[in-house]
């Protein structure tokens, strides 16, 4: 496993991307509309900032309503998402996604429940 990205909920992904580009010299390497959101990936060298701007009601819109902008989740890259999910099951970690599903940038993803992972929503990502 390797660090993949920090998912950041925001009201304006492009504005935040410009700020981070100016502040940190990092580059926008991918942008798409997926699952009712604008998603922008900024390359930090050893992982990404994934900026999540909702267009419609859904998980990120609800997160913003409850918590305001900020870190929504952390993601770990794996070469074997099925095996990682099985390991999580063996450790009695609740899965939000029992089976891997399509995610942004063409990746396969699955989320682990924060109540069993130290209060952090963790995403597994397979390229």
From TrEMBL:
Q: Which PROSITE patterns match?
A: VOC (PS51819)
- Biological process GO annotation list? L-methylmalonyl-CoA metabolic process
Q: Which residues form a coiled coil?
A: none
Where does the VOC domain lie? 2-127
Q: Which UniProt keywords apply?
A: Metal-binding
Which Pfam families does its entry note? Answer: Glyoxalase_4
The GO terms this record gives for MF are: metal ion binding; methylmalonyl-CoA epimerase activity
Lineage, top-rank taxon, reads Archaea
Which family, according to UniProt?
A: Belongs to the methylmalonyl-CoA epimerase family.
The name this protein goes by in its record: Methylmalonyl-CoA epimerase
Q: Which organism is it from?
A: Natrialba chahannaoensis JCM 10990
